[in-house]
From TrEMBL:
Belongs to the iron/ascorbate-dependent oxidoreductase family. InterPro entries: DIOX_N, IPNS-like_FE2OG_OXY, IPNS-like_sf, Oxoglu/Fe-dep_dioxygenase_dom. Residues 179-282 form the Fe2OG dioxygenase domain. Keywords: Iron, Metal-binding, Oxidoreductase. Signal peptide: none annotated. Gene3D superfamilies: B-lactam Antibiotic, Isopenicillin N Synthase, Chain. This is Fe2OG dioxygenase domain-containing protein. One of its GO terms (molecular function) is metal ion binding. Pfam families: 2OG-FeII_Oxy, DIOX_N. It comes from the Eukaryota. The keyword Metal-binding applies. It comes from Hypsizygus marmoreus (White beech mushroom).
């Protein structure tokens, strides 16, 4: 079972401070807190979230992840994602590239679709290992429901700040429509000689990510700074970030920032690294484009930058499955395959 206490993040390693947003105050629609969330979402696209009330469910998810990763490889591979662009299921370490050279990633993970968690005991999208099924009702569905609740509240706040009609962003993330929304538990075995990327530099594919980290390793590339900087895990604080879909809907006002995972610093590099994410993504049929007809604020942002392209011509499903598919080593033909997996980071103006 993953440990719940960890050696501290070393003091002499520089980190990038994120704004700390208090979820209780956001829920109460405190204007100062909303303004700080807006600042975080528009400047870097990353922030800490405290008072989110999901620690217990997150601990259960880490246990589910550990139980799953302990299954024999042959068993896990029965639930592998495959090479066609589906994300749900198991991904072995080394199945994805981390860069254009085709260097392999080092992270193993299990992804559970929000659609399966909400439909349980019916199967919506795919079957899972027994360790997932055993904890669907007790652990996974409660974690996913709480995470959805939090991300939906944040979406409502961004909706209003963007001057969109009430409920517009929630409509694009309907609970009923199938989507790429999923929970992910990631395990990374320490690799003493590895200094490079464990999970390649990327922007997130959907709208909002809600991340629970205990060891360091996550790094962000802050606008205007040319070196990667660690984000230090803080107990009880989730790390939240904006993905491509919200950046596109908002005409680039909200920022989908590059990030990656490298070995944790100092003594932490000798430990198994566990992380947990819930990704909120738009419904499969939703076109990814700036919502210019719905908000003068978005329309103005787009008009100010005619050089930028917010018309992807893709639905959320197409965007998401393309990115998953071309990260896969099995689909690799050359550096162009990696380029085909890129999102808004390939268009750094967005
Ligand atoms: O493990 C982490 O800290 C980050 C994971 C991540 O960025 C992702 O899965 O998209
Ligand atoms: Fe990510």
């Amino acid at each position: 079972m993953p440990a719940t206490t960890f050696p501290a993040f070393p003091e002499d390693v520089p980190t990038h401070p994120l704004l700390v947003i208090d979820y209780e105050r956001i829920k109460a629609r405190n204007q100062d807190e909303i303004d700080r969330l807006w600042e975080a979402g528009t400047k870097l696209g990353f922030w800490y979230l405290k008072n989110h009330g999901v620690d217990e469910e997150a601990n259960g998810m880490f246990e589910m992840g550990a139980e799953t990763m302990e299954l024999p490889m042959e068993e896990k591979m029965k639930y592998e994602q495959g090479d066609d662009g589906m994300s749900f299921g198991y991904k072995a370490a080394g199945a994805n590239a981390v860069d254009a050279t085709g260097k392999k990633d080092a992270v193993e993970f299990i992804n559970v679709a929000k659609d399966d968690a909400l439909a349980w005991p019916k199967q919506a999208r795919r079957a899972y290992p027994s360790t997932v099924n055993a904890r669907m009702e007790s652990t996974i569905t409660p974690f996913i429901k709480k995470s959805l609740d939090i991300n939906n509240t944040l979406l409502e706040v961004f909706n209003d700040k963007l001057g969109l009609p009430a409920g517009k962003l929630l409509e694009k993330h309907s609970m009923e429509e199938y989507s790429g929304s999923e929970a992910r538990v990631i395990k990374t075995i320490p690799t003493p000689t590895e200094k490079g990327q464990l999970l390649g530099s990327h922007t997130d594919f959907g709208s909002l990510s809600f991340l629970h980290n205990r060891l360091g390793g996550l790094q962000v590339l802050v606008p205007g700074v040319d070196t990667w900087q660690y984000v230090k895990p803080i107990p009880g604080h989730a790390i939240c970030n904006i993905g491509d879909a919200l950046a596109l809907f908002s005409g680039g006002i909200l920022r989908s920032n590059l990030h990656r995972v490298v070995p944790p610093p100092g003594y932490q590099s000798t430990l198994i690294r566990w992380s947990l994410v819930f990704f909120t993504r738009p419904g499969n049929s939703v076109p990814l484009r700036a919502l210019v007809e719905d908000s003068p604020i978005v329309a103005e942002a787009v008009a100010k930058h005619p050089e930028k392209d917010f018309e992807t011509g893709s639905t959320s499903y197409e965007w998401f499955s393309r990115r998953i598919k071309y990260q896969r080593i099995n689909n690799r033909k050359g550096p162009e395959t990696w380029m085909a997996s890129r999102g808004t980071e390939a268009n750094p103006e967005v």
